[in-house]
Design a protein that fits this description.
Strand order of the largest sheet of chain B: 3-2-1-4-5-6
Number of strands of chain B: 12
Mean pLDDT of chain B: 96
Helix content of chain B: 40-55%
CATH topology of the largest domain in chain A: Rossmann fold
Helix content of chain A: 25-40%
Order of helices and strands of chain A: EHEHEHEHHEHHEHHEEHHHHEHEEEHH
Oligomer: heterodimer
Number of domains of chain A: 2
Structural class of chain B: alpha/beta
Shape of chain B: elongated
Radius of gyration of chain B: 25 Å
Largest interface: A-B, 164 and 157 residues
Distance between the termini of chain B: 37 Å
Largest sheet of chain B: 6 strands, parallel
Number of strands of chain A: 12
Radius of gyration of chain A: 25 Å
Number of helices of chain B: 18
CATH topology of the largest domain in chain B: Rossmann fold
Strand content of chain A: 5-15%
């Protein structure tokens, strides 16, 4: 475990991002912060809606104790600003003058109505890149449709193919209708920044979260355009027909029949099972796929009275891509994740405690992708940003606070 | 105006899905992505129709045999004129070819090398063999995405590859940005398991902070709590009885509008459904009422009715709904066409975001293996026709 330091030196160091998103889009700016950008999260005076979402530390609801908020907002700074107030909007425009990126996910048209739309921001800072994320995009017949994560996974084609035939579709673990949109958004921002470097222009990015979900499918789109019929739910059988879950004596394993057939079948045979799999026809991938149900039924029988970890350990020795079907709790005991310092201890001095956070997807050797700042308390950086960076006088800060602008 | 990433050249050793997803992000925005590959196994499907156009459109392919020293030499010459080298092998493969970062930086000091292996290049399990379904099993998706009967269900596809691909695409762009600023390259050791694990963050914090084992996902709150919340079976469409509507009623205002929109039946005024908390407590009964209603309606009409009342609702769209009927995706041009070998068109998924000044584009179908040998070896590396023929005869190039 590593203890993060307070100084960012990531790949995006030097970029300033203003994050106006609510909890459906707040991963996007965090990704940029993880990579070193200075991200200022603008929160309404009562706090971002994400602060009201659980789970909470020790199950005590409080704006500074939401683990949901924590995960999506570490590495950011928090500035409270009432954008309903004219002076609040003026301050935002001042911040936008020196920002590189603004990310917002108001309902389409709302930013414009508030005087914070693309035209306005572009006029005051022509080099600005603005990302607008919305459920269905800024135009089209569904532009004003509303959605939560469930509706996005439904409309994006993700939900329909999860689960068992004849049974209801199964919803993803985690908010996978929101997350891809945030990644696509960050990628789009990077592209716009490359173009800005070359062409000296800012630009506006219109991202549809539904399309981002539809752009995160694997076989659904290609399968339809190839065969003209929609892909169906198949239980745990992967659409490639090389993977299925099997039940063993103390849990479940993910079978895989795409690896080296000879060593798999020698092993199964040596256990006294699978006599019907000795036919050389099984050596062909196509045959295994065509008769996948029968094949997995035999393999299920083989693993039924064996412990999960024993099967997986042996399989991996033979380079068979088997895996344990784990509970997420087991990730914290994973020796591989531990060896790579994936979980990072983050200090919360206000609580007098340190907590393990899931860390970076990659070890970047030149410019670490990392956690260097615990999630901000509500409005924690309001004064340092407005006084030290925007040079607002102390007496105005007092008035603005009294007026509820901050 | 040129596309955002024009001028960036990627030497792409990746295959299967995660790597190609990462390089697709770059190719869609104008980077020149050169796949270095052998003919892929038949079970991966054809190149010009199906999933491959989705994964590999806009890319070039050169069929270099990396088992031959002269093949490796050609690849090293590509690196010399490249900006980013990307693979999804375990550590020993690139090292075996002398193509690991330390070797590559001697050829091109500012090269960026990214490896997108299953579990990373370091650690006791760096040689673990994995695919999307195996990683999803390890990360908890398979176990917690359960059928109502409690059995594991998980994703019906390799979401893991998409998660890894998105993380890879963003990481590569960040490293390229840093190099633009400083002139420095670097090595990136991406773990697909770590990328995927980052997609369930709040659940992991609940484990590490509150020591709470995570229950199956079901329809419990993973964000703003809602009730009604779930998928509800709708009237069959023709002989298709697999029609569902997803509904999420979060606030009291949404509940009031929901009740009015469905005609204010008596049950909506019952005490047990009066508040969100009560509706969540009495979810089963609530869902039964709603299912009785939706079963008589077409999914599309439920969506239109509820959306008109500003209640989150959407058809659980299958491939056909998505690719042909959905007027929104169509109106946003999300299904661009590419050419098949028989000169007919086939559609691919488009780019989910639009850049106002330098938008990406879909310019060509996925290449067959070696389709761009002449351009890559001839124009980029300056080999003559005779030299290329000889390399083919010597099996330094795959046919």
């Amino acid at each position: 475990m590593t203890t993060p330091t307070a100084i960012a030196s990531g790949a995006l160091a030097g970029l300033r991002v203003l994050d106006l998103t609510d909890y459906t889009g707040h991963l996007c700016a965090r990704l940029m912060a993880d990579l070193g950008a200075d991200v200022v999260k603008i929160e309404p005076p009562g706090g971002d809606s994400g602060r009201r979402i659980g789970p909470f530390v020790d199950d005590l609801p409080h704006p500074n104790r939401s683990l949901f908020f924590w995960f999506y907002n570490f590495n950011k700074r928090s500035l409270t600003l009432n954008l309903e107030a004219p002076r609040g909007r003026e301050i935002l425009l001042d911040l936008a003058r020196s920002a590189d990126v603004v990310i917002e996910n108001f309902a389409p048209g709302r930013a414009d109505a508030m005087g914070l739309g693309w035209e306005r921001l572009h006029a005051i800072n022509p080099a600005l890149v603005m990302l607008s994320m919305s459920p269905f995009g800024q135009d089209g017949p569904y532009r004003d449709f509303v959605a939560d994560d469930t509706v996005l996974t439904a409309m994006g084609g993700m939900l329909y193919v999860n689960g068992y035939p004849g049974r209801p579709p199964v919803r993803p673990l985690g908010l996978q209708g929101y997350h891809p949109a945030s990644f696509y958004g960050a990628i789009a921002i990077m592209c716009a920044l490359f173009a800005r470097d070359r062409d000296s222009i800012g630009q506006w990015i219109d991202l549809s979260m539904q399309a981002a979900t539809a752009g995160t499918l694997e076989h659904v789109v290609g399968g339809y355009f190839q065969n003209g019929v929609p892909e169906r739910r198949r239980g745990t059988m992967h659409w490639s027909r090389f993977f299925r879950v099997g039940k063993c004596s103390d849990g479940y394993v993910m079978h895989c029949t795409i690896g080296d057939w000879t060593s798999l079948i020698e092993w199964v045979k040596s256990d006294g099972a699978a006599q019907e799999l000795v036919d050389p026809a099984w050596e062909a991938h196509a045959h295994r796929a065509a008769h996948a149900e029968r094949l997995f039924d035999v393999l299920d029988q083989w693993v039924a009275d064996r412990p999960r970890d024993e099967i997986v350990a042996r399989a991996q020795l033979l380079r068979q891509p088997y895996a344990a079907v784990r509970h997420p709790e087991e990730l914290f005991d994973d020796e591989q994740l531990r060896a790579r310092n994936f979980f990072v201890e983050v200090d919360h001095p206000e609580l007098g405690k340190k907590f393990l956070y899931p860390g970076a997807p990659a070890i970047m050797h030149g410019t670490p992708w990392r956690i260097y700042r615990r999630p901000p308390l509500l409005g924690e950086h309001t004064i340092e940003i407005l006084r030290d960076e925007l040079d607002l006088p102390a007496d105005e800060l007092q008035v603005l606070t009294a007026e509820g602008v901050l | 105006m040129a596309m955002s990433l024009e001028g960036i050249r990627v030497v792409d050793f990746t295959w299967v899905v995660a790597g190609p997803v990462a390089t697709r992000m770059l190719a869609d925005n104008g980077a020149e992505v050169i796949k270095v590959e052998r003919r892929i196994p038949g079970y991966m499907g054809p190149r010009k129709v199906g999933t491959q156009p989705d994964l590999n459109r806009n890319k070039l392919s050169v069929s270099i045999n990396m088992g031959e020293p002269r093949g490796v030499e050609l690849a090293r010459r590509l690196v010399k004129i490249g900006d980013l080298v990307i693979d999804n092998f375990s550590a020993r493969v690139m090292r075996g070819w002398g193509m690991d970062y330390e070797s590559l930086r001697k050829i091109k000091p500012d090269i960026i090398s990214m490896s997108m292996s299953g579990l990373g290049h370091t650690g006791p399990r760096n040689n673990y063999v994995s695919y999307g379904p195996t990683l999803q099993a390890l990360a908890g998706f398979t176990r917690l995405m359960t059928d109502p009967n409690g059995e594991p269900a998980g994703y019906g596809y390799s979401f893991s590859d998409l998660a890894g691909g998105l993380a890879g695409g963003l990481t590569a762009l960040a490293a390229l940005w840093h190099r633009k600023r400083t002139g420095l390259g670097q090595f990136i050791d991406l773990s697909q398991l770590e990328s995927l694990t980052g997609f369930i963050g709040p659940a992991l914090l609940d484990i590490s902070v509150n020591q709470r084992p995570q229950p199956p996902v079901d329809w419990r709150a993973q964000e703003m709590p809602a009730a009604p919340h779930g998928v509800y079976r709708c009237k069959p469409r023709g002989d298709d009885d697999d029609r569902w509507i997803a509904i999420a009623v979060r606030t009291q205002a949404e509940w009031t509008r929901f009740a009015a929109a469905i005609g204010a039946p008596a049950w909506t005024t019952e005490e047990k459904f009066r508040t969100l908390y009560l509706r969540m407590r009495n979810r089963e009964e609530l869902d039964q009422h709603i299912t009785r209603w939706t079963a008589e309606c077409e999914a599309e009409s439920v969506m239109r009715l509820l959306q008109a009342a500003k209640v989150p609702a959407g058809v659980v769209q299958n491939g056909e709904d998505l690719c042909t009927h959905d007027p929104q995706l169509r109106s946003r041009g999300f299904w661009p066409l590419v050419k098949r070998p028989d000169d007919k068109d086939t559609a691919v998924s488009g780019i989910p975001y639009r850049l106002s000044a330098t938008p990406g584009s879909i310019r060509r179908n996925a290449p067959e293996t070696g389709e761009d040998n002449d351009y890559v070896l001839g124009e980029l590396l300056g080999l003559s026709v005779e030299e290329r023929k000889q390399l083919m005869a010597d099996q330094v190039l795959w046919p």
